[in-house]
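Re: beginner question about structure tokens

> Can someone show what the tokenized structure looks like for a real chain? I only ever see the sequence side.

Sure, here's an example I had lying around. Input first:
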Amino acid sequence: MTFTEWFSGIAILNLSWLLFSLPIVTLIPATDAVFEVVNEWKEDKKPESIFEQFKYYFQKNFKQSFKLGLPIFIVVIIVIADLYFLSSLTLTVTWFQIFKYAFYTLMVLIFLAILYAYPLAKRTGIRSFRIFLMGLMLMVGNPKVTISLLIMLIAFVLFFSWFPAMLFFLPMSGLAWLGATALENVT
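And the corresponding structure tokens:
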């Protein structure tokens, strides 16, 4: 598979995710379908029709996706609200600065654990809080892969800050691909 085939597949997958996430209620099943397609793609080969496969998994796993996705979605919303709250405060007290940076570190760890947990859920079929803990253990137990994943995430952020138009083509499917690749290197 050439780079252009891979990139076009990732772009189609991300555009499908954007299209199916327009009603905010379907954000969780659409995200689940992205990870399912990437898992299928990693196990076999690139599917004939990425959009058709995405639609199939979206419909097939619609109800099941909320078992894993809803708790993660709630955690992400709480983290975003906390980030907004912490960034709006202008306290210069030392304890507050320590708390703020400790929270930032915790946020990065949670995000990395989610990037391990979602592809792991696709591989094992487990859809409970246990999968998040297993992702956390994989993250801590494989520091080389985790640091590589963190470097790639930083590169993603820099790339999107330089080329914001790419936000339409890469973010969710690119993250799913990174998570699946990290899990592949761990197991």
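Each token stands for a local structural state, so reading them left to right follows the chain. The chain has one domain: 3-186.
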